[in-house]
Design brief:
The structure is a single chain. Helix 7 links the parallel strand 9 (207-211) and strand 10 (234-238). The radius of gyration is 32 Å and the shape is elongated. The protein has a three-stranded parallel beta sheet with strand order 1-2-3. The chain has a three-stranded antiparallel beta sheet with strand order 4-5-8. It has a two-stranded antiparallel ribbon with strand order 6-7. The protein is 46% helix and 11% strand. It is mainly alpha-helical. It starts with 9 loop residues before the first strand and ends with a helix. Helix 12 (328-342) packs across helix 13 (353-363) and helix 16 (421-428) crosses helix 19. The protein has five domains: 10-80 and 192-240, Rossmann fold, CATH 3.40.50; 86-184, Glutamyl-tRNA Synthetase, Domain 3 (Glutamyl-tRNA Synthetase, domain 3, Alpha-Beta Complex); 251-322, Glutamyl-tRNA Synthetase, domain 2; 327-373, Helicase, Ruva Protein, domain 3; 389-481, Arc Repressor Mutant, subunit A (Orthogonal Bundle). Bound molecules: glutamic acid. Glutamic acid (GLU) is lined by residues 14-16, 48, 192, 196, 210, 214.
């Protein structure tokens, strides 16, 4: 398919494995994916792993897992830049040969002193172009001294670079604000700028959609494309994501790594819907959009320039909404790993799926995340429940009255043959009058007896699911707990 500009859409997600992917990274991946799917184009995955000093073990796997978890499938890749060094070096030679780049022999110590001086003079840190026009004999001297050079781009000293950003419109940078940035480092690895431009060209990327923080790198990239006589892709920078306090989103606003949301029990569909609204909107009103609707509706025209604000409450609300939409079978499948992970080890595994289904049908309305389920449901799975015996007492319920009520109710329940909520309620409700207790008080007491909690799902449904044997054991246990 062709985009509005007439080229076929090829976009890429190009993370650096310098840490686990955070919300902002994945929002970038999602916008690229939506754009590709909307235009029937290609979504390419490229790992930008040329900064070997900042590489984090395991990060690539987490990036791939996160994309898979969210259903952001890629059509090509993953390509690894670290396996493509020859392509970058070849291009650097061309740039050197044509005078667009030069060798710089400055030692790290010299650069450090220079930066220090600049800081003292309150000047922005910028390479002073010491090696830009070295005389031949000086170069020969440096070379024979064994200094390993880096390769720098020969940025034009005057003029400016303007490009059209699909989100920010016309953007202009004066060349005197740019420096002669490094293309190839002394370890032989390319910098981000070089590898990124070469790969976007070689991989025939049509649109570069990336976070706003890269906007200031783009004039350098445009200059590189010009020097190489390549046509630049179209650029679109995505607005920043801020925390509720309007500071850049960080750890202190809650989890920022996407895999933590998976562990906390968010659903991929909820996450995708939520992330899509961080910087894009359909109409400023619509909050719930399915994956299909997002693909259909997504457009760069509706990506905003203003920073998006991350709202955890909204995410929770959205997750609760998507959870409630699951049918029971799907719910069981989603919840099972969380129950297995978080229920105490002594609860017998494998858990019985049919029983889990009955339990979940009672608590599914109350969970905002799947990780809440083991806690909400634990009393259904334990042989013995722990609670403060004081909870068995109440206004009209001293130990004696409570013991009597528990004994009477237990006896009544033993007689019940059809163990369903309606029959159970029909049998137990009349006991309140006989015991001279309010219905609320009696039911409150029984709730503690069978669940150990003051807040739990509807009482008789709970008793029905727990089953006769377990319930009667809990009545006996409660009697033992009461003070004599
Ligand atoms: N490797 C860069 C990153 O980690 C990619 C930026 C870009 O998309 O150009 O975000």
């Amino acid at each position: 398919m062709q985009s509005e500009s007439g080229t076929s859409v090829r976009v890429r997600f190009a993370p650096s494995p310098t840490g686990y992917p955070h919300l902002g990274n994945i929002r970038t991946a999602l916008f690229n994916w939506l754009f590709a799917r909307h235009h029937d184009g290609k979504f390419i995955l490229r790992i930008e792993d040329t900064d070997i000093t900042r590489k984090v073990e395991g990060a690539v796997e987490v990036i791939l897992d996160s994309l898979q978890w969210l259903g952001l499938d890629w059509d090509e890749g993953p390509y690894f830049q670290s396996q493509r060094l020859a392509i970058y070096r070849e291009t650097v030679h061309k740039l050197l040969k044509e005078g667009h780049a030069y060798l710089c022999y400055c030692s790290p110590e010299r650069l450090e002193t220079m930066r220090h001086e600049q800081a003292k003079q309150k000047q922005p840190p910028k390479y002073d172009r010491h090696c830009r026009d070295l005389a031949q004999e000086e170069r020969t001297r440096l070379e024979s001294s064994g200094a390993t050079p880096v390769v720098r781009f020969r940025t034009p000293l005057e003029g400016e670079t303007t490009f059209h950003d699909l989100v920010y419109g016309l953007v202009t940078f004066r060349h005197d604000t740019l420096d002669d940035f490094v293309l190839l480092k002394s370890d032989g690895y390319p910098t981000y700028h070089l590898a990124n431009v070469i790969d976007d060209h070689v991989m025939t990327i049509s649109h570069v959609l990336r976070a706003e923080e890269w906007l200031s790198s783009t004039p350098r990239h445009v200059l590189l494309y010009q020097a190489l006589n390549w046509q630049a892709p179209q650029f679109g920078h995505l607005p920043m994501i801020l925390g509720p306090d309007r500071a850049k989103l960080s750890k202190r606003h809650g989890s920022t790594n996407i895999n933590e949301y998976q562990k906390e029990g968010y659903l991929p569909d909820a996450m995708v819907n939520f992330l899509a609204l961080l910087g894009w909107s359909l109409d400023d009103r619509t909050e719930v959009l399915s994956r299909e609707e997002l693909i259909k509706q997504f457009s760069l025209e509706r990506v905003g320039k203003t920073a998006a604000v991350f709202n955890k409450d909204k995410l929770e609300w959205m997750n609760g909404f998507y959870l409630r939409k699951l049918n029971l079978g799907e719910y069981v499948q989603q919840a099972m790993p969380f129950l297995n992970r978080d229920l105490p080890g002594f609860v017998k595994r494998p858990l019985d799926e049919a029983y889990v289904g009955e339990v979940l049908s009672l608590i599914k309305e109350r969970a905002k995340t799947l990780a809440e389920i083991p806690q909400l449901a634990s009393f259904f799975f334990l042989d013995e429940i722990q609670y403060d015996p004081g909870l068995l007492l109440g206004k009209k319920l001293d130990a004696q009255a409570a013991a009597k009520a528990i004994t009477v109710a237990s006896r009544q329940l033993q007689e019940v043959e059809i163990w369903d909520a309606t029959t159970l309620e029909g049998n137990v409700r009349p006991l309140a009058g006989e015991l001279n207790l309010g219905t609320g008080e009696l039911f409150g007491l029984l709730r503690i007896v069978v669940t150990g909690r003051t807040a739990a799902p509807p009482l008789f449904q709970t008793i029905a699911v727990l089953g006769k044997k377990k319930c009667l054991e809990r009545f006996d246990a409660a009697l033992r707990l009461l003070p004599a």
